[in-house]
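Could you join me in thinking about how sequence relates to backbone shape in a protein? We need material for that, and I hope you will provide a protein of your own picking. Once you have written the record down, we can walk along the chain together:

…
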Amino acid sequence: MQLFVSWLTLFGLAHALLAADRPNVMIIIADDLGYHDVGFQGSKEIPTPHLDRLAASGVRCTNGYVSHPFCSPTRAGILTGRYQHRFGHENNPAWKPESTHDGLPLDQITLPQLLKAAGYHTGAVGKWHLGAHPQFHPLKRGFDEYFGALGGGHVYFPEDKGGVEYTIPLDRNGADEPQRRYLTEQFGEEAAAYVKRQAAGQPWFLYLAFNAPHTPLQAPEAWLKKFSHLSPPSRQTYAAMVAAMDAAIGQVLDQLEATQQRENTLIFFVSDNGGPNLSAKGTGNFTDNTPLRGAKGDLHEGGMRVPFLISWPAHLKPGTYEAPVIALDFLPTAVALAEAKLPEDRPLDGVNLVPYLTGERSGQPHERLFWRSQGPKGIHAVRQGSWKFFRAANGQPELYDLNRDIGETQNLAAEQPELVAQFNKAIADWEKGTIPPLFESPKAGKKAPKKKP
């Protein structure tokens, strides 16, 4: 009996040590961040010392993508590890708290559900935008706790005015809570507090989704003064918003270091899409996607090629990684390191990136990456090696060698008809695993009615 008890004790200790080796996992998402608008991407206008610190501690993926050129579908892809086209989440859901239809379908298994089953505590802070009905609430999708804004955006100061979705109360675990300060700072505080609370407990997963620097363009005066030399005014405010987000991320990193959790915390950082080509009050575009062509909503590189970082100091050497990767890879990477189980009843599209980043595995993580916007008859794109294929809704093909032409300026489609045919076939084969969008984007219902003849 004593031997049996001793064996149980040793088994328990071994299990505890094994659990201690599993990394904490954090996903940080910026909203509408320009490709060239952070220091580690080369920006000289917007200092981002804390994101630069994160980049210096990990791997910068120079061909890193998200799975969609705008917001909610990208988030659906990240949390499921699947092309969102497989389950119809191809548009932004409208703010409809009464709708059980507009949101991340309930039959989709999420990353927090998988990690929670493996013994992780799961928390989310920030923007949700995956359905307004209570059935879509983060606490129903695998998170143990949540604080943030459930819609697609929010005003940044409590006294600011905006549409209903942008002025709803903040949500803490299903209960309304008033906004009390500049929202980016509040999200940073909440995330840092989560990290501190979890320091002595089980491994954890934190999903930190800023709504910055998405419009409305609003920033504290102290940050605005730091960028008073920039013009137009919209660029000044946008830069201040990026800097405030960077400071909030710095607060979280500082807390990780203060609680001695940084070494064994795996952090992913991306923007949900490229910077939008917007103007504020006629003053011109305020984001910078240099050297890419296109912007948010576009399937040229500027729409979905984004700043992309992976940091795990305990196991990943700092550097760059050049093969194409996608945010769909976050889920299988985190699940593998957490020793959790992947779903076996559905195809996943991401891969575990760690063996590629460490050099244990050679070759490309993905043979091809696919994008689609506006449904099966809409716009398509494919990335294969250095080749980028773009097909407009009218079927017009474009083909680029990104190693030589990152700005997609020289269309080689006419010179490479066999490659064009191969890409068209690849799209047709990929389409067989997708479905049409389940719900329309809110903008679709705002189109002006056609005039009667």
Summary: Confidence is low (pLDDT under 50) at residues 1-18, 447-453. Residues 260 and 286 are 38 Å apart (CA to CA).
